[in-house]
Amino acid sequence: MFHQTVVLATASVGASMSGMTSPSASAQSVGSLAPRPGRDNLGLNEAFKAMPFGMASGAGWTRWTVQWFNMQRDPDEFNTFYFTDSKGENVLDAQIKAGMKVAAMVLGTPEWAAQTPGLKAGTSVPKGLYEPVFDGNVINPMNTWGAFMYRLAQEYAGRMDVFEIWNEVEIPATGSNAVYNTWAGSVADYYQLLAVASEAAKAANPSARIVTSPYSYFKDKEAGGGESLPWFDAFADVVKAKGAEAFDIVALNLYRNPHDLWDRYHGGVDIVAEPADRTGFRARLEAMGAGSKPIWLTEINAMPFDDQVPGWDAKGREDGFRITMAEQANYVLQAHALALTAGYDKVFFQALQDDPYPVPDELWGLVRFDPDMQNKDVSRVRPGYRAYQLVGEHIAGASRMELHVRKRPDPKKQAQYASRFEWAQHLAVFHQGDKRASVVWNGTDEVSTVSLKASGGSAILIDSEGRETPLAADGDGRLVVSLPPASRHFDLFGGDPPGYFYIGGATYLIVEAGVPADAPVDATGFVRQTGK
Description:
Blueprint: E1 39-44, H1 51-55, E2 59-67, H2 68-71, H3 91-97, E3 101-107, E4 134-135, E5 138-139, H4 144-155, E6 162-165, H5 187-204, E7 209-211, E8 215-216, H6 217-223, H7 230-242, E9 250-255, H8 258-266, H9 281-287, E10 295-301, H10 325-342, E11 346-349, H11 383-395, E12 400-407, E13 423-432, E14 435-442, E15 448-453, E16 458-462, E17 468-470, E18 478-483, E19 508-513, E20 527-529
Parallel strand pairs: 1-2, 1-11, 2-3, 3-6, 6-7, 8-9, 9-10, 10-11
Antiparallel strand pairs: 4-5, 12-13, 12-20, 13-14, 14-19, 15-18, 16-17, 16-19
Helix pairs in contact: 4-5, 8-10, 10-11
């Protein structure tokens, strides 16, 4: 298999620091892949495919795809060996024993249960979807979907209690994303799918929770010409009419731009050109009577091009959408910092490991592919994996989270085309006990200096690959860090406005020890953000 050596030797950190006590940085690495405590607000999809890396990641959750058509190939079958590997070991139980909770993404109508046979595999509305879920106190087999969800929730109660119902159902069967189409029914049919799943699963397991189909915002916005969200708006109308009891959690899939994570939660600035972007999902849920529902990010990523794995043309894949592996490491820190300070309940990264080579679409993984789920070769990791470990170690377990930004003038109203154009420098602050971790990065094309009041007894600076440098306060009691410029600009389809970079520059953590729980954030020129 392909190997790329991970740099573990002592190296110099790229940012300059005032009052620095040492010019060198001791490198931190994935080391022996020792298991780390899993954070309840962090998820890493398909972690079972590379279990030692999943256990060492810091994620407390993972996601499995449960294909109904493979678990129940005929009406009288229920495959209790679905989670058993070729060695006869139950991988689900092993994942849970390792400390990771499992969410199931359930989808795929079997042909025998299809209301409309002959459609693309798995996409039909199930037979009997509008039949009663129960016949008296007994599950009604005429409602094929309800009967399956009852059995699934009953069989795995206590091991798998969270169920995402289908995936990206708003993507149509035609058009550029048709390969990802999973649902041939109407919006009303999908609401009924949720309602039946909720009634059946909670009868079998009162702890079951139902998650809406992970939603591809930008595809729906494209269908509405930027003015509206045709699928989601129709779904909201059904929820208003029938109630929000059919689901417990709302799921979004968002890729590439970390700023989008903030904007989709709170809404973009009022002058942003496309009206659909101005309203965040917190407000959308409130308007449809689901304001108390948590919002999960079920897939985030910004995929790289520059890795020569088998069957992958790195140069040919540099198409303006993909980024470098080094930039992906910065993305991991920036995206989680913005998502968690925005207010998302959980954030799932897609995915831990690449698909088998040659891959048809993307290098999804933080780790390169290996067929052995127990492989521990640390040369498989990309820089983003170590950045992810830093999220688990310093960010995700925080009891207090704040986002502060330093703004720049926008006389040309470029925020019409990039909602967060004014956000020049970013400071996301996370408190765990007496530890404060401040994630800092630059969103402009010029070097910038950040000055924070030292609040603890000691501080270190950590780069995206985990290299640490002691950081001393200057004569004014401040921690000063020079941030390199950003460079990732989107040039396609009209592109980003001049001076906007959708992924910021090199990202650092300033980690202080001995910080009082109520210590304020004092950063020169920065203002706390609490919404739009």
